[in-house]
Amino acid sequence: MAKKSKVVKELKRQELVAKYADRRRELKAKGDYAALQKLPRDSSATRQKNRCAVSGRPRGYLSKFKVSRIVFRDLALKGQIPGITKSSW
């Protein structure tokens, strides 16, 4: 489980990106890079980090399922992800 502070910080970052998305798009279209620099740093979408929805883990993230590899394996073994079965031959 990731630190709660890291998960909360990432949520705040997502809110900032959503808040400033239209403004950033307008400024980029105008080419006004001085005004872009005055916006908060965390309002840039490239500063976002994908995190697991269950555990908050930043590494081993599977974007199709929005969970980490560890949580994915647990859910798959429990049969909670439709269409996923453990392979055996």
From TrEMBL:
GO terms for cellular component: ribosome. InterPro entries: Ribosomal_uS14, Ribosomal_uS14_bac/plastid, Ribosomal_uS14_CS, Ribosomal_uS14_sf. Pfam families: Ribosomal_S14. Gene3D superfamilies: 30s Ribosomal Protein S14, Chain N. Keywords: Ribonucleoprotein, Ribosomal protein, RNA-binding, rRNA-binding. SUPFAM superfamilies: Glucocorticoid receptor-like (DNA-binding domain). Signal peptide: none annotated. Part of the 30S ribosomal subunit. Contacts proteins S3 and S10. Belongs to the universal ribosomal protein uS14 family. Binds 16S rRNA, required for the assembly of 30S particles and may also be responsible for determining the conformation of the 16S rRNA at the A site. This is Small ribosomal subunit protein uS14. It comes from Paenibacillus auburnensis. The lineage of its organism: Bacteria, Bacillati, Bacillota, Bacilli, Bacillales.
